[in-house]
Amino acid sequence: MNIPLKSLESPAGDVFTPGLEGVLVAETVLSHVDGAAGRLVLRGHELGQLADWSFEAVLALLWRDLGPESLDETQIRERLGTARMAAFERMTAALPALEGLSQVEALRLLLSRLPDAEPQCHHLVAVASVPVFAAAIARCGRGLAPVQPEPGLGHAADFLRMLHGVEQGPERVRALETYLVTVADHGLNASTFATRVIASTQAGLFSSVIGGLCALKGPLHGGAPGPVLDMLDAIGREENIVPWLTDALNRGERLMGFGHRIYRVRDPRADALKRAVAALRETGGRIAFAEKVEVEALALLAERKPLRSLQTNVEFYTALLLEAVGFPRDSFTNVFAAGRMAGWTAHVLEQDKVGRLIRPQSRYIGPAPA
Ligand code: ACO
């Protein structure tokens, strides 16, 4: 029998928004991105008000009233320390399996060994595990043995210590802490949406955040900062800036670290990170060069896309900051995941409370059956 094509149409009607721009799919108490004003609010706090907060304090803020128990900053710091130790013990046997994988693929593999069924505070375990795994993966990439966590340290300080093998000075720790806080949550970005979709199926927290990591790794999302440094290196000298950027745009390439789906003005996170990186003594020459590239890139983008306000995004100064505190560039997405794990876990806890399966519609545009 021939079914008329019309009867195959989606009952949701005609509105189709590629990329889901402007489509509301969740309510959240966690964060708000105001793209027109360039503001980011985390649970009632402007990003600028969180500048000197610890990562643990931001976790306490995001998890408040959502987790199985309410923990303050000090309790979270203690629990994360213990959980980092457990993550280290769990990880050691798996390291040979990471051979041949990129750093983010290796992180994905190690996270996938966390059992969804085990009864524990999965949000704490997920946050605690990422720096342990990411530092070990970065060290393995350089032929170095992993360094055991020091549970008495703060999360950011221990992350740097596990990366370098020795404790780092307060300036570097503060810079990383600022980074982790700045990227902790950011509305319904692609990775957080992916995380919430998986959480809505009740697949479990670890499965949900692994989905988030998979979405994060793409160059249009969290995979951009490594390529920002590649771009700065490829440009190399001041007299190359304009010709290099012009050639890249003529080839139809996107300039990494610029543009954003929501922001039509400067990403407030770019300025937060620029301040943090400028406070580090060792970045003087690099940051001055990057600023020149930024100015020229913005001028060219304004000329090429006068109708679309393309501004510096979070990834531009992320690249400089993570380089300055000693992370290898192929580990940048994993460090992003260490910060964004705060938001992903909070969104999973929030989605669990909503309890509604996320299942949108598509419109069928294929052939009708013969
Ligand atoms: N360089 C050059 N052109 C750009 C850039 C860029 N960085 N960003 C957007 N454009 C162009 C697009 O090619 C498009 O041109 P067209 O109209 O001629 O096709 C126009 O500007 C509009 O862009 P959109 O596609 O509407 O932008 P969208 O909202 O889909 O993309 C995105 C946002 C993915 C961030 C984009 O700006 C981009 O690719 N930037 C570079 C990668 C990057 O920095 N990613 C990190 C983002 S921050 C984060 O996720 C943490």
Automatic annotation (TrEMBL):
Reaction(s) catalysed (UniProt annotation): oxaloacetate + acetyl-CoA + H2O = citrate + CoA + H(+)
Keyword Transferase: yes
SUPFAM superfamilies according to UniProt: Citrate synthase
UniProt entry tagged with the keyword Transmembrane: no
Keywords: Acyltransferase, Transferase
Annotated Gene3D superfamilies: Citrate Synthase, domain 1, Cytochrome P450-Terp, domain 2
Pathway: Carbohydrate metabolism; tricarboxylic acid cycle; isocitrate from oxaloacetate: step 1/2
Molecular function terms from GO: citrate synthase activity
Cross-referenced Pfam families: Citrate_synt
InterPro entries: Citrate_synth-like_lrg_a-sub (IPR016142), Citrate_synth-like_sm_a-sub (IPR016143), Citrate_synthase (IPR002020), Citrate_synthase_AS (IPR019810), Citrate_synthase_bac-typ (IPR024176), Citrate_synthase_sf (IPR036969)
Family assignment from sequence similarity: Belongs to the citrate synthase family.
Protein name stated in the entry: Citrate synthase
